[in-house]
Every structure is written in structure tokens, then in C-alpha cells.
Amino acid sequence: MSRRTTVLACLVISSLLSLIAATPAAAAAPHTDWDYVALGDSYSAGVGASGQSGLCLRSANGYPGRWEAANDPKSYRSVACSGATTDTLRLTQLWPLTKGTDLVTLTIGGNDAGFASTVISCTLSSDSACADTVESAMESARDDLPAKLDATYADIRRKAPNARVVVLGYPVLFDVTTAYCGVGGMSIPKRKSINSGAVELNKLIAARVRAAGLIWSDVADEFAGHGICGASPWLNGLTVIPATNSFHPNGSGYRYGYLPALNAALG
Q1: Residue 216 in contact with residue 206, Cβ under 8 Å?
Q2: Is the pLDDT of residue 3 over 60?
């Protein structure tokens, strides 16, 4: 190949690469064409953020509402509800799903494992009793939750066969780098017991998500350094008014924790 030919070839290749680099969005389906449905429990309803309303305590400041506001999909509906389990999700939340649904997001499994009651019990009990309570909850989850998750994911896939289904995990709740956790705050041993339960629960859910061929999004990295008792928490500790906010993400947790994790899962 002559020098002139080589130079021309390099210019053509360089121009093509520049065009490709300059128009990455053209290859991706715009989110404005998507029909989006949010399912799940309180972590998907937005409990813990401002603006909660209705019996399900949904808030536009949860991660689904924030994603909708940022991406302006063709349609958006949230049927996520505080207190939802796999059973109630299958009974009451699947109706908006269709063959035309493009995106489904959810958090589910925490209430099946009794995690909220476990955390409250730990608040009132000794270190050893807390450890026993967490282990008992996880033993029950190991036995019963996999089949419930499998059935839930199968129902979602059956109702929305063409959708991207993103299942998000739960944050590790507590910072354990400092002994002080406010008046009435939990001891480090209690915090470690609860955190270990959250890690195991996430691993269990992730395994079933992958087995179902859905998209798993772990939020642990996003929330790292922002646990309850830390200097900059993205989660509410024990809250008196409203009590339902206890141990749920605050506005920062949904904005800087869950929303980036969802965006990363979607690529």
C-alpha cells in the first residue's frame, strides 16, 4: 500500500470513529418511548422520602418517580406499596403489566423475611437476642423465600414478556465505624448482626433474579459510607413521626443511592 493510500485510509477510519463516538445515543432506544411500571414494597414506593401519600405511602421522590422525572417515559405507573410481600405483589400489583411494557422495577422479599420486625426487635433486645432474631429470620427466608421469588419473577415475565425487569436490592443499613449512634441508638454488635442479615438476604434474592434471567442491581456500593449512625446517612434511623420512615432511605438515599443503581443496571 502506498503512503498516500495509507494516509487516506487512516483519515477515513478516523472520520468514521469520530462519527460513531459523537452519536452514541442513536443506537439506544430513547426512554421517551418506554412504558414503565414500578412494582414492589416500601423501598419502591418511596417510604422515607418527602411527599408520601395514600395507604401505600407512595412518593414521587422515591427512585421510580425520580427516574420518571429524569427520563420522561411514554407512560409511568407505580403500584408499589408499603408492606408488600411476594404474595400481595402477585395478587394486587401485576395488573398494569402488558406485552407492551418496556421497563419493570421492583424491590421485594424484605417483608417476606420479616426484616422490618427483626430490626425493631433488635432495637428493644440484647445483643445476643438480636443475633438470634436475625438468624431465625434468615433461616425462615432460606427455607421459604426462594420459591416465592421464583413464582413472583415468573408471573412478572409472563405478564410483561418484552420488558427489562430490574430487581434492586436492599442497602446495608448501619455504619459500624463509630460506637455512638445517638440516644437509644443500636450497639455495634446489633448493627453487625442486622447488616449480616441484609447481606445474606441480598445474596439470596440476587441468586433467584439471575436464575430467572432478570437484571439484578445491588445498591450496597452506592450506599457505602452512608449508613445509619454514620456522619452522612442516606437512611432514616428509628423515627417517631412518622414511624413508617424508620429504617428506610431518605431523599438522598433514593436520589444518590437507588437512582444511580437503576441507571447503571440499565446501561
Answers
A1: yes
A2: no
Is 50 exceeded by the pLDDT of residue 27?
A: no
Find the catalytic residue in 15, 42, 50, 196. 42
Q: What is the pLDDT of residue 29?
A: 53
176, 225, 251 from 228: Cα distances, Å: 9, 9, 14
Rounded to the nearest 5°, which phi and psi values hold at 104?
-130, 130
pLDDT at 116 > cutoff 90 = no
CA distances from 157 to 34, 94, 169, 208 (A): 17, 10, 19, 13
What are the structural domain ranges in the chain? 30-266
Backbone phi, then psi, for 243, in 5-degree steps? -65, -25
C-beta of residue 89 within 8 angstroms of C-beta of residue 106: yes
- CA–CA separation, 118 vs 54, rounded Å? 25
Tell me whether residue 31 is one of the annotated catalytic residues.
Answer: no
Exactly one of 15, 193, 248, 252 is catalytic; name it. 248
Q: At what angle do helices 115-124 and 188-211 cross, to 10 degrees?
A: 170
For residue 117, indicate whether it is catalytic: no
Q: Per-residue pLDDT for 95 more than 50? A: yes
* CA–CA distance, 84 with 221 (Å, rounded to integer): 25
Residue with cell 438480636: 130
Question: Can you name the residues that pair with 215 across neighbouring β-strands?
Answer: 166
Per residue in 137-150, pLDDT (tens digit) is 999 999 999 999 99
For the chain, the residue count is 267
Unique residue bearing C-alpha cell 443503581: 261
CATH number, span 30-266: 3.40.50.1110
Q: Are 61 and 96 in contact (CB under 8 A)?
A: no
Q: What residue has cell string 469520530?
A: 18
Mean pLDDT of the chain: 90
